[in-house]
TrEMBL record:
<dbReference type="InterPro" id="IPR027843">
    <property type="entry name" value="DUF4440"/>
</dbReference>
<feature type="domain" description="DUF4440">
    <location>
        <begin position="2"/>
        <end position="108"/>
    </location>
</feature>
<dbReference type="InterPro" id="IPR032710">
    <property type="entry name" value="NTF2-like_dom_sf"/>
</dbReference>
<protein>
    <submittedName>
        <fullName>Nuclear transport factor 2 family protein</fullName>
    </submittedName>
</protein>
<dbReference type="Pfam" id="PF14534">
    <property type="entry name" value="DUF4440"/>
</dbReference>
Amino acid sequence: MDRLYFEAYNTCDMETQADFYHEEIEFYHDHTGLTTDKAAILKSTEENICGKVSRELLEGSIEVTPIPGFGAVEIGKHSFINHMEGGSKSEPSKFVIVWKDTPDGWKIYRVISLH
């Protein structure tokens, strides 16, 4: 699921990204704070990420723990490549994604993004 979501993120496939987010999304970012509006997250991604930044997973860093009757928690590390600054790459940072298993498929329910 991580790979599928971030393929959409890196290629600016906003429709696929929108489908991944749960309607009750909570996105905690250590620089910008909490966002609970799915449309605002998508708009911010489109304006600030598309064509400017891409994400690269630190191979072997993902841990997934099932949460019975709910979904799973994914913890890992990733870096971001800033294409506006000659492809500069950030230091790896931690992230947590809480996935909810819904009748419509796995949805991103909570995100903690630390840089």
